[in-house]
User: Which sequence fits this backbone?
């Protein structure tokens, strides 16, 4: 054998029928000093790992036109390729490639021991192209502590992890590009731990992730990643980011199957503006279903949530307003007024809704509290049940009748005040009329008995509008919402805090 010349594994006794163990023959070819190893078409049985270390001359191992299969037979933890480039110096063999191979095992992704198609530790300038991995209980391809890695045209199916990037001796993967990956039927399709400068382009992940555990089809456990044109379909959970910084650009599609179509963020550092971004804001999502485990669509950061389908998504932690106080009254008292435009979204704020999180505790907020969330005029609970001390009144008027010719109306009992805005929306039907009405239009109360009658003007303290008596249909009447709290314990009183944040609207279901 001439050193540096291509080596054909058949010349070393490899069996392309898959009957005999071909590991010794292929390993001999790797150790022969050849720069390139050729594995012709066929199925090759592998009973133990093919080890490649930094002292080997080999730089490329190639199958033939995706008709070469290496099949691992093992009952213990093992891989087909065990690449052991442990921090090679710059002047030695950093460049290495594996391409045009189908990698599989005789087991399944549920095996108690871990199996891998490729297990690469500390490599640099590595390239994996046209690799298909199936039936591995560890990962189809696991890269640990590697830098400058390229992966093209990678396919994984029925593996525990389809493609994974992990730490090696505390060193994270850095500067990796994955271009065109198709992954199906994995607990995690793509997963990374504290990796940085990672780029994923045109990756398709389906039938992966879990709707009952925090495993995502794309699972970002720390680090940073730019994800360009991903496609998610029929996944239990599409995306998980735990203390990670993902940038998602031009998502091609996010769809769900029978399980929830869920995106979860946890402990993300939103103190740094732009740390975690999603582009575009609407994500082109056909729908977002509720998370089965938490009954929320998206969980973003500590104690920041958004409601179920048709709700909104919080981007960042921008506090717009806050209110603090202490109550001693044993009856419900109004502590905050939510303007109509902020509780439902107005024409001027069609791309911004508002969330109010209400905290309260017996002494101070640092010694325990409960919380309720008000979104789009609906009271929700962070802990699962509505706090007994919190309620929301107002929001809309019902049983509205026009009672006169000068803007007089009546309604079911509500809390009304002079100067309150009333936004009327919808197609006018029924009887009666409002001169100059357009859909929608905001008016102001200029007189009221405080509960059931009121008079409207087009301006604050302006003249009454012109009306004719009747009972309109097809209209909604939105008024501000009032946050009310009640001291349930007369011994301690109630310390409260209300935080208002601006959020972006979700896609209605």
Assistant:
């Amino acid at each position: 054998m001439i050193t540096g010349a291509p080596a054909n594994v058949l010349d070393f006794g490899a069996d392309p029928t898959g009957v005999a163990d071909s590991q010794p023959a292929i390993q001999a070819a790797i150790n022969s000093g050849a720069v390139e190893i050729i594995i012709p078409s066929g199925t090759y049985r592998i009973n133990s790992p093919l080890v490649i270390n930094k002292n080997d001359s080999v730089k490329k191992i190639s199958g033939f036109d995706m008709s070469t299969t290496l099949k691992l037979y093992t009952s213990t933890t093992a891989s087909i390729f065990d690449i052991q480039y442990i921090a090679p110096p710059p002047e030695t063999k950093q460049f290495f490639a594996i391409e045009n191979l189908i990698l599989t095992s005789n087991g399944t992704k549920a095996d108690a021991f871990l199996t891998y198609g490729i297990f690469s530790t500390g490599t640099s300038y590595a390239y994996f192209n046209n690799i298909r991995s199936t039936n591995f209980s560890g990962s189809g391809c696991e890269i640990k502590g590697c830098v400058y890695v390229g992966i093209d045209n990678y396919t994984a199916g029925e593996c525990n992890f389809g493609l994974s990037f992990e730490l090696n001796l505390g060193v994270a993967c850095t500067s990796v590009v994955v271009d065109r990956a198709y992954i199906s039927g994995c607990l995690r399709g793509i997963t990374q731990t504290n990796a940085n400068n990672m780029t994923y382009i045109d990756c398709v992940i389906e039938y992966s992730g879990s709707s009952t555990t925090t495993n995502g089809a794309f699972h970002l456990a720390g680090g940073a990643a730019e994800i360009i044109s991903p496609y998610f379909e029929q996944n239990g959970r599409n995306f998980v980011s735990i203390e990670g910084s993902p940038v998602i650009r031009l998502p091609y599609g996010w769809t769900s199957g029978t399980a929830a179509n869920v995106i979860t963020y946890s402990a993300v550092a939103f103190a740094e503006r732009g740390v975690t971004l999603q582009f575009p804001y609407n994500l082109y999502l056909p729908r977002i279903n509720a998370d089965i485990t938490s009954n929320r669509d998206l969980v973003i950061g500590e104690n920041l949530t958004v409601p179920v389908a048709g709700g909104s998504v919080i981007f960042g932690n921008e506090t717009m307003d806050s209110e603090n106080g202490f109550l001693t009254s044993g009856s419900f008292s109004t502590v905050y007024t939510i303007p109509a435009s902020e509780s439902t979204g107005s024409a001027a704020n069609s791309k911004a809704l508002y969330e109010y999180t209400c905290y309260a505790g017996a002494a101070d907020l640092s010694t325990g509290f409960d919380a309720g969330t008000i979104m789009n005029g609906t009271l929700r609970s962070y802990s699962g049940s509505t706090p007994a001390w919190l309620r929301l009144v107002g929001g809309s008027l019902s049983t509205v009748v026009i009672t006169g010719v000068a803007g007089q109306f009546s309604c079911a009992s509500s809390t009304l005040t002079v100067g309150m805005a009333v936004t009327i929306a919808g197609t006018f039907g029924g009887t009666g009329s409002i001169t100059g009405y357009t859909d929608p239009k905001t008016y102001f109360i200029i007189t009221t008995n405080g509960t059931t009658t009121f008079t409207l003007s087009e301006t604050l303290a302006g003249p009454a509008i012109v009306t004719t008596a009747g009972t309109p249909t097809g209209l909604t009447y939105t008024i501000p919402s009032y946050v009310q709290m009640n001291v349930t314990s007369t011994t301690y009183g109630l310390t409260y805090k209300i935080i208002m944040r601006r959020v972006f609207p979700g896609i209605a279901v």
